[in-house]
Write a structure and sequence with these properties.
Blueprint (H helix, E strand, L loop, with lengths): L1 E8 L3 E10 L2 E11 L3 E3 L2 E3 L2 H18 L6 E6 L4 E5 L2 E2 L15 H7 L2 H8 L8 H6 L9 E4 H10 L4 E2 H4 L14 H6 L10 E2 L4 E4 L2 H7 L5 E3 L5 H7 L8 E6 L3 E7 L6 H5 L3 E4 L5 E7 L3 H12 L6 H9 L21 H11 L8 H27 L5 E5 L6 H11 L3 E3 L4 H13 L7 H11 L3 E3 L11
Parallel strand pairs: 1-6, 6-13, 10-11, 14-18, 18-19
Antiparallel strand pairs: 1-2, 2-3, 4-5, 7-8, 7-9, 12-13, 14-15, 15-17, 16-17, 19-20
Helix pairs in contact: 9-16, 12-14, 14-15
The protein binds beta-L-fructofuranose.
InterPro entries: ATPase_NBD, FGGY_C, FGGY_N, Rhamnulokinase
Pfam families: FGGY_C, FGGY_N
Keywords: ATP-binding, Disulfide bond, Kinase, Nucleotide-binding, Rhamnose metabolism, Transferase
Length: 475
């Protein structure tokens, strides 16, 4: 049995978890939780990397203190796509936030050189206006830089001095060849990006190296090794889904709802491209064939707005009121790009309703219900599309991440899918991070299924059965 520390940075909060892994043991203890508050400067919306790094260090110190023995390793995961640029080992500016509206400036530039259909055939990636490739194409710092590191790689580099590109997350840049999982050097050339930005690729499970001596003393340890895991949080979350059948779909539901299936190879058809499905890299060479649904961001940003306007009931109270709503509420298109940037979500929902000749939600409870119904409808459509596009027939949907705690959302998802929903584990991402570290340390052996058996035996899911007569969605 070993103890490891997982740093999991989410778009709205981060956490550090002490994990205990053995052949029949998998336990997590959260030792730190901290907000992730973006900062707006003159040039746009940024992540507060300094604050996140400081909080990660405090958390690692707490993990080391709480661990009964020395930590076998530590590893970092976070959201995808966003990056820092370095020159001679110095970070050039704070990373931008993918919700910064100017991030999309490079889309046209890239598509003028490499049309989207060709791009999809090479990188297998769904179109998101903030994919790294588009951000880089319009980033003036690129010409000064000699290295590009995505956020978790950047944190690991600060801890160890080792700067490499972990593959699951690199697969979200748009610059990785979906077939070979190597940097697409020809594409990089055609886009006029400096080749040297894209360095050594490593797989989840690789050892990066020990933390720098001054970090070790700050953490109160004599030595701590940092590993690469599936540093893309969604890839770690998919490791933590107790998936055992090729008839199972998953929804990794947090800020985003990532809806899809796990495959052995990519699906690069026109239909998959038009449905905006992505082929992101998973652990052990698996493919995460999924699409991004707007997710709980819609709800949290709505509640943030109400709080700014002078207080609001707790999330629990709002969800209870939403569950009691009996009248009709609008089902709006959560994928409308107007919902991507921060701002007044109820006003945007009302504007969408006005444009589509439907009545907007009447009050707060109806707004929450409308958001959850609309998310559930989008989840159901995406599950059906994932099945259709991959040629599978799906008979169960796993919901993992924070959304698994939202019983109303899980029930509505079961209703609209017409399929049972198995909710949990809530902490799938941290579990995936810890499991891959545990495997590297030899505390658990085998393939992904062996890791998932450990999840299944230690974390009982909650089952939601579709209610008769409820609204089913077809693709
Ligand atoms: C979820 C996630 C998604 C990615 C989005 C932006 O946290 O990592 O997978 O598309 O954030 O990076």
């Amino acid at each position: 049995m070993v103890h490891v520390a997982a740093v999991d940075l989410g778009a709205s909060s981060g956490r550090v978890v002490l994990g205990e892994v053995g052949p029949d043991r998998l336990r997590l203890q959260q030792v730190a939780r901290f907000p992730n508050d973006p900062v707006r400067t003159d040039d746009g919306l940024h992540w507060d990397l300094e604050a996140l790094y400081a909080a990660a260090l405090d958390g690692l110190r707490a993990a080391a203190a709480a661990s009964p023995g020395p930590l076998a390793s530590a590893a970092v995961d976070s959201w995808a796509v966003d990056y820092g640029l370095l020159r001679h080992g110095e970070l050039l500016g704070q990373p931008f936030h993918y919700r910064d509206e100017a991030r999309a400036a490079g889309v046209e530039v890239v598509h003028a050189t490499v049309p989207h259909a060709e791009l999809y055939g090479r990188n297998g990636l769904q179109f998101l206006p903030f994919n790294t490739v588009y951000q880089l194409a319009a980033d003036p710092l690129v010409e000064k830089a000699d290295q590009m590191l995505l956020v978790p790689d950047l944190v690991a580099w600060r801890l160890t001095g080792v700067g490499v590109n972990e593959r699951t997350n690199a697969s979200t840049t748009g610059l990785l060849d979906v077939r070979t999982r190597q940097w697409d050097r020809d594409l990089i050339d055609r886009l006029g990006l400096p080749q040297e930005l894209f360095g050594e690729l490593v797989d989840a499970g690789a050892t990066l190296g020990p933390v720098r001596p001054e970090i070790a003393s700050r953490l109160g340890v004599s030595r701590l090794v940092v590993n690469a895991v599936a540093t893309h949080d969604t890839a770690s979350a998919v490791v933590g889904v107790p998936l055992f059948s090729d008839r199972a779909a998953y929804i990794s539901c947090g800020t985003w709802g990532l809806v899809g299936v796990e495959l052995d190879g990519p699906v690069l058809t026109d239909a998959a491209r038009e449905a905006n499905f992505t082929n992101e890299g998973g652990v052990d060479g698996r493919v995460r064939f999924l699409t991004n649904v707007m997710g709980l961001w819609l709800l949290s940003e709505t509640i943030r707005g109400w709080e700014r306007a002078g207080g609001t009931p707790s999330l629990e109270a709002l969800l209870a009121e939403a569950a009691d709503v009996t009248g009709p509420v609008p089902v709006f298109d959560v994928q409308d790009p107007r919902f991507l940037p921060p701002g007044d979500m109820p006003a945007r929902i009302a504007a969408w309703c006005a444009e589509h000749d439907v009545l907007p939600p009447a009050d707060r409870a109806a707004t929450v219900r409308s958001i959850l119904e609309s998310l559930a409808a989008a989840f159901a459509t995406s599950v059906a599309r994932a099945a259709e596009l991959s040629g599978r027939s799906v008979d169960v949907v796993h919901v993992v991440g924070g959304g698994a705690l939202n019983a109303l959302l899980c029930q509505l998802t079961a209703d609209r899918c017409g399929l049972p929903v198995l909710a949990g584990p809530v902490e799938a991402t941290a579990l995936g991070n810890v499991l891959v570290q545990g495997r590297s340390a030899g505390a658990v052996t085998g393939d992904l299924e062996a890791l998932r058996r450990l999840v299944a035996t230690t974390h009982q899911p909650r089952r939601f059965t579709p209610r008769p007569g409820s609204a089913r969605v077809s693709p």
